[in-house]
Amino acid sequence: MRYYPVNLDIRNRKCLVVGGGDVGTRKVITLLECSAFVTVVSIKASEKLLKLAESGLIELNRRPYTGADLGGMFLVICATDNERLNMQVGREAEKMNMLCNVADRPEVCNFILPALVKRGDLVIAVSTSGKSPAFAKKIRKDLEKQYGAEYADFLKLMGAIRKKLLAGSHEPEAHKPLFEEIINKDIVQLIKNKDTDKIDYVLFEVLGEGYGYMDLMGQEE
User: For the packed helices 196-207 and 175-184, what is the interaxial angle rounded to 10 degrees?
Assistant: First the structure.
């Protein structure tokens, strides 16, 4: 199987999760982090899901799934311990040309979910195309050691620089060598060491006046 890698914008999209256990709860949290409108259908629900429902962050229907639950949904995730139900949801979603993932059953999905390393806006996805989720998890843990919180701050800085450059007279084509030079100056390590003086020196050297580290980071708050 060859999967097409893609990052979906699910902001304000209706997404359905069938199953309210630990796996379903994790799927719900990830969807919420991406600003989706989440509906959960499950007789049983974790404490976390109950609290999310009480807070109005999700819609929770504590009843069995029916085909009508698919109506108006953009994306469906099925995460139950009922194999027949999982297969049913997968088939019905496929008939409606919906994006559907059935946890741990790549053969009945039209998309699979990678293991993720998240550091702010940096998202590293690891997939074994469904062959070995355990190995994907191992690689994810290795990457978590390599990419720390400093990468989130680095991307925050780069975003602020890009925004300021675009607001000025710089042509977008001129940005690439500037960004490459900043990256090659190893600012990530300077951020990790909290060496703001050296960061300011590098920014001045590459970009000139008006690009102080703390000021730029404040703009991104």
Answer: 150
pLDDT above 80 (res 204): yes
Q: 55-83: string of b/e by CB count within 10 Å (b at 16+)?
A: eeebebbeeebeeebbeebebbbbbbeee
Domain span including residue 211: 150-219
**For the segment 31-73, what is each residue's pLDDT rounded down to a tens digit?**
999 999 999 999 999 999 999 999 999 999 999 999 999 999 9
Strands 115-119 and 122-126: antiparallel
Residue with tokens 């060491």: 193
Asked if pLDDT for residue 220 goes beyond 70, the answer is: no
If one counts the domains in the chain, the total is 3
pLDDT at 170: 61
Number of H helices, E strands in the chain: 9, 7
Are both 99 and 197 inside the same structural domain?
A: no
- Can you tell me whether residue 116 is helix, strand or coil? strand
- Contacts of 87 by beta carbon, 8 Å cutoff, 6+ apart: 102, 105, 108
Q: Domain check: are 75 and 178 in the same one? A: no
From CA 187, how far away is CA 85, in angstroms rounded? 51
Whether residue 2 sits in one domain with residue 45 = yes
